[in-house]
Model the fold of this input.
Amino acid sequence: MRHRGGLSARERSARSKLAQLLHSRVVLRGSLVSMARVCGKPSCKCTRGHKHVSLYLSTRVGTQRKMIYIPPQMEADVRSWVEAYRELEALIDELSQARMERLLRDKERTMSSSKR
Done:
């Protein structure tokens, strides 16, 4: 790997934001899913169409998809962690795209210089 000074301003900025994100926030991969359920009590409002709404984290554990119940008092924290992961993904995509553009430019230069 070359020195970071050889990177474009776009790449340096994305790498910097990525490092700041990793050092300052908790990151959790998954998606939040709101589910409406019936509890089963015959006299409950949910039997009349007003289902109980609860939040779940949908994530992968190994090769299996898991749905993990999120208690209401943890909802804000978990939302923040999942959002941090989304930001991390976007930054990694940006870095990868910048690297791909550089690869294609370098490849074109290599191919044109080898034809001479």
User: Anything to note?
Assistant: The mean pLDDT is 90.
